Amino acid sequence: MTPEERPGGYYLGYTDVEAERLIRQAKRLAPVTEHFFREAGIGAGQRVLDVGSGVGDVALLVARLVGPGGSVVGVDRDARSLERARERVHEAGFSNVRFVEVDLAEFSTDERFDAAVGRYVLQFLPDPVKVLRSLSSAVKANGIIAFQENSFAPFVALSSHLPLWSSCVNLMHETARRHGVNVEMGPALHRVYQEAGLPIPQMRLCMELGYEPEFTSLLSDAIKAVLPQIKRVGFSTDALGDIATLERRLHEEVTRSNSVVPWIALGGAWCRKAAD
User: What are the domain boundaries of the chain?
Assistant: First the structure.
């Protein structure tokens, strides 16, 4: 039984198809995340810990920000994802990025970092406060802790004008919630940071809007990714029609409406760690 098939396993799984979906999604989110990290203070020469690296999108982005004088250490529990991340780092020509295979709940290190960052990570953890407290111990005094997590509420609200798009969004929302994902972890970072012993963070909420096929396909791709979870919790996909044609029908609905549709909002929080 694979990790994604086990009850309580990682919600999105570790398949090759999912890896490709995450890479496509990351390309759309990259400008938002880069702006957020720059605002938080991530920059040249820093040593950065990337939490929940997956196939390496955030690590690659941070490597560009810190430059050759800095370095990135990425941690994740999935060996196959990290193998792909290492291949991508090599292809990009970076020599200042390395990855460590470890479960975040068990992560500890004697190394010290100028910053710890992550995107779409804490929302999947049963005890994000404990993990954030542990991670922060690896960050230097006055170092940066910056995370971006999801917020479904605006995603649901701004999708209501389109029946099919809205049905998909609501099904994603309820399936994630039933599986134990914190669907409002972004806004919750205000509380989580403080409970982890960190200063009150600066907060941002950013949402991507679009209409082009590459954008609307994000939703059909996501639905296909979570189909096993939808079936596991007993939800029906009847309202979505034929999944094989869902991508086309979603785009046609958006085109007919002459409007834009949203993607899951990114709630970001960053702070500087107080002196030990």
Answer: 10-272
Q: Which residue has the tokens 């007919």?
A: 256
Question: Is the separation of the CB atoms in 75 and 103 below 8 Å?
Answer: no
Amino acid identity at 138:
A
Closest CA to 164 of 261, 233, 258, 234: 261
Instruction: State whether residue 205 is helix, strand or coil.
Output: strand
**Mean pLDDT of all residues belonging to the chain:** 93
pTM of the entire predicted model: 0.92
Distance, CA of 102 to CA of 115 (rounded, Å): 19
Residue recorded with tokens 């509380």: 191
User: CATH: 1.20.910.10, 3.30.360.10, 3.40.50.150, 3.40.1260.20. Which one for 10-272?
Assistant: 3.40.50.150
Beta bridge partners of 206: 266
Complete edge-to-edge strand list for the sheet that includes strand 202-206: 97-101, 71-76, 47-51, 113-119, 139-151, 265-272, 202-206
**219-235 mean pLDDT:** 93
Of 58, 49, 51, the residue nearest 25 (C-alpha): 58
Q: Say how far residue 89 (Cα) sits from the centre of its chain.
A: 19
**pLDDT tens-digit map of 51-74:** 999 999 999 999 999 999 999 999
Evaluate whether 127 touches 12 at the Cβ level (below 8 Å).
no
Q: Which two tokens stand for residue 48?
A: 């950065």
The single residue listed with the structure tokens 């990114």 is 266
Please check the confidence at residue 254 and state whether its pLDDT lies above 90.
Answer: yes
pLDDT digits (tens, 9 = 90+) for 84-131: 999 999 999 999 999 999 999 888 899 999 999 999 999 999 999 999
